[in-house]
Amino acid sequence: MNKLIAAAVLAATLSACGIAQAERAVPIPAAKLDVPKAPGLQTAIFAGGCFWGLEAVFERVKGVKAVTAGYAGGTRATANYDAVSTEQTGHAEAVKLVYDPQQVSYGTLLRVYFSIAHNPTELNRQGPDTGPSYRSAIFPQSAQQKAVAAAYIAQLGQARVFPKPIVTRLESGAFFPAEAYHQNFFDRNPRHPYIVMWDKPKVAAFKAGFPTLAR
Predict the structure, then answer these.
(1) What gap in Å lies between CA 154 and CA 178, rounded to an integer?
(2) Is the pLDDT of residue 9 over 70?
(3) Residue 146 and residue 156: Cα distance in Å, rounded?
(4) Per the residue annotation, which of 11, 31, 50, 195 is the catalytic one?
């Protein structure tokens, strides 16, 4: 079943039963290693479950100038929702961030990514969504980003921040924007059952857990 339909049915059912998704920011330390500040805008790409929630959280981070929902890790020919939903294309639902490193560092973006944007201990799933397109993956855009991401994963693992091992992978591959109807989905569809059940709690938790970072 198409995720748009299946997730909406699940969320509506849970809501009708009075069950709500509880979200809070996981208290994790800042990255010890970070990408040095540099002039000009930079790009970061993160995958971790449905891109609607990732987009909604990162759009509210000060210093993030633009967020695009899309597909990373596969080919252009199959970078479309119907194909990716078959879980056979190798893509991950992902977001591309354009950010100002003078205002927010790559390490800080990683902290948001690991603490609230998704659960990095779930393998090939997030919440109600299952399959490799919902995997936890970082697509570094430079050698520095790759080094910082790897160091942070190791740092969090050594600190035993999470009760289970982090399964986030560092991957390479092109990013392809998703269809127009997926862009800004949270803001354009505030009453959508999936948004109400799974993504609004994430945004609220981000604002509560990172008050000085939230717009």
Answers:
(1) 31
(2) no
(3) 16
(4) 50
Contacts of 38 (CB under 8 A, 6+ apart): 101
pLDDT in tens, 46-59: 999 999 999 999 99
Pairing of strands 125-126, 92-99: unpaired
Active-site residue, 17 included:
no
Which one, of 78, 182, 89, lies nearest residue 133 by Cα? 89
Tell me how far CA of residue 44 lies from CA of 8, 63, 87, 100, 190, in angstroms.
Answer: 29, 12, 24, 11, 26
The domain 28-185 is classified under which CATH number: 3.30.1060.10, 3.30.70.1130, 3.40.50.300, 3.30.460.10? 3.30.1060.10
Domain boundaries, the chain: 28-185
The model scores a pTM over 0.85: yes
Phi, psi of 112 (to 5 degrees): -65, -45
- Rounded CA-CA distance 126/160 in Å is 20
Q: Exposed/middle/buried for 160, CB within 10 Å: 0-12, 13-18, 19+? A: exposed
Write the DSSP string, 79-108.
-SHHHHTTT-S--EEEEEEEE-TTTS-HHH
171-186 residue pLDDT tens: 999 999 999 999 999 9
User: What b/e readout covers 21-48, taking b as 16+ CB neighbours within 10 angstroms?
Assistant: bebebbebeebeebbeeeeeebebbbbb
For residue 17, what pLDDT is reported?
A: 29
